[in-house]
Amino acid sequence: MDLSPVNFEPLVFLLVEDLPEDIFLMTKAFEEARICNRIIALKRQADVLPYLRGDAPFAGRPRPDVILFKLNASDPDARRMLNAIRQNSASQGIETIAILESDGTDPNENTFDLDVEVVLSKPIRAANLVAAVGSLSGNWLRFMKRSA
């Protein structure tokens, strides 16, 4: 049995959100949840695939572990973009959380066809964020602190 220490790297999150105030609120939710991981924000959905491929001007940027993708459930362009991201080889191994705009409807309605690991509704609460990220395969250990 190997008892050598295991090193963990913090997850890198790619937040796809067009509104600066929502980017701010998401970073606040991370802070409240005491998640100190790196968050990279893209304001345009069209920049996600170039980012993942490392195209200019994104060459050399860190590869995300999780994509937090804002999705207006009734916007067919956003759904097509999310589908294109999920099917692209550059996104293999990256888990995706869809963040739905709060429009008063059931967040589970019209989301069964999304190829994502988790669906969250705005506004994002710290506890929901922790639960969502913790539910992703193999990531729950990264939120654990070694006991003394």
Q: Summarize the biggest pleated sheet.
A: 5 strands, parallel
Strand order of the largest sheet: 2-1-3-4-5
The portion of residues assigned to helices is 25-40%
Strand percentage, roughly?
A: 15-25%
Contiguous uncertain segments of 5+ residues = 140-148
> What's the overall geometry?
globular
**Using DSSP, what is the number of strands?**
5
Order of helices and strands: EHEHEHEEH
Nearest-integer average pLDDT: 79
Backbone structural class: alpha/beta
User: How many DSSP H or I helices?
Assistant: 4
Rg, nearest Å: 16 Å
N-to-C span = 22 Å
Q: In a nutshell, what does this entry contain?
A:
Helix content is 28%, strand content 18%. It contains four helices and five strands, in the order E-H-E-H-E-H-E-E-H.
Describe the structure.
Helix content is 28%, strand content 18%. With 148 residues, it is an alpha/beta fold. The chain has a five-stranded parallel sheet with strand order 2-1-3-4-5, with helices on both faces. The longest helix is centred in the N-terminal third of the chain and has 13 residues, at 20-32. The protein is globular and about 50 Å long. Residues 140-148 have low confidence and may be disordered.
